[in-house]
Amino acid sequence: MKRYCFALDLKDDPAKIREYEHMHEPGYVWPEVLDSLRSSGIRDMVIYRTGNRLMMVLETSDDFSLDVKNAADRDNPAVQQWEDLMWAFQQPLPWAEPGQKWVLMESVFDLSQA
Question: How far apart are CA 102 and CA 84, in angstroms?
Fold first, then answer.
């Protein structure tokens, strides 16, 4: 199993944050988006929020590839529509590359390695 953590900010607007969270409640994420996550090798995915900062944690199969997932997403119209819709609520981190949404976080501590 592999684990990836990403960060992204929401627009600092309480109404937009509530709507974003509502759109991620069970039954609201589009089935095509869920299928694309599961079929890529993502076994579990959780998103946490504090203030307007989000952290997304992916647990994946050992053969999962971010590059393959990103390429498949670019070719999936439903995923692109979902991403465009979500961008109405999101904003890049100050240090994100141009056009980058979720920024991969670096692990700084692992209890299993301590």
Answer: 13
Residue 112 per-residue DSSP state: G
The pTM of the full predicted model, rounded to 2 decimals, is 0.93
Beta bridge partners of 42: 60
Q: Where are the domains of the chain?
A: 2-99
Identify whether the C-beta of residue 58 lies closer than 8 Å to the C-beta of residue 30. no
CA-wise closest residue to 106 among 27, 1, 7? 7
As a whole-number percent, the residues of the chain with pLDDT over 70 amount to 100
2-30: pLDDT as tens digits: 999 999 999 999 999 999 999 999 999 99
CATH superfamily of 2-99: Dimeric alpha+beta barrel. (3.30.70.1090)
